[in-house]
Amino acid sequence: MQRSDDRRERIAQLVPEHREKFADAINLRTLYVVPLIARGRTIGALGALQAESGRPITDADRSLIGEIAQRAALAIDNARLFAEAEAALKEAETANRAKDEVNRT
User: Fold this and answer.
1) pLDDT tens for each residue of the chain, 105 residues long
2) Which pTM was predicted?
3) Residue 27 — left, alpha, or beta (φ > 0 → left; ψ -120 to 50 → alpha)?
4) Which positions ≥6 away from 38 have C-beta within 8 Å?
5) Which of 38, 50, 71, 77 could make an SS bond with 30 (beta carbons 3.0 to 4.6 A apart)?
6) Which residues contact 54 (CB under 8 A, 6 or more apart)?
């Protein structure tokens, strides 16, 4: 856990100086960030930027961004679950082959 905390601290230190340069470079007007939540856990965040047009993010925009965030979180979580299931299957197949090898001798 310490390693993750150190990484977060380093990122937090870098963000302010780069954030200002980035915002200026794209003429950032609005930043809207929503959490990616899957099965009750926050697994990330989705940010939407509004630049140059000066148009504010509307309630309809926020609703759409929230819907996209929900779908993204579900897709990410499903991919993680699928990878875990495949790893478990591979491990079971390996154990089964080892068992078969022992039974043959």
Assistant:
1) 456 567 667 666 666 777 778 788 888 888 889 999 999 999 999 999 888 787 888 999 999 999 999 999 999 999 999 999 999 999 999 998 888 888 887
2) 0.67
3) left
4) 73, 74, 76, 77
5) 50
6) 29
DSSP 18: H
String of DSSP letters for 28-90: EEEEEEEEEEETTEEEEEEEEEEESS-PPPPHHHHHHHHHHHHHHHHHHHHHHHHHHHHHHHH
Gap between the Cα atoms of 47 and 75, Å rounded: 17
- As given in the structure block, the two tokens for residue 63 are 């609703």
62/51 Cα distance (integer angstroms): 16
Q: Could you tell me if 75 and 36 are in contact, meaning their C-beta atoms sit under 8 angstroms apart? A: no
- For residues 59 and 35, is the Cβ–Cβ distance under 8 A? no
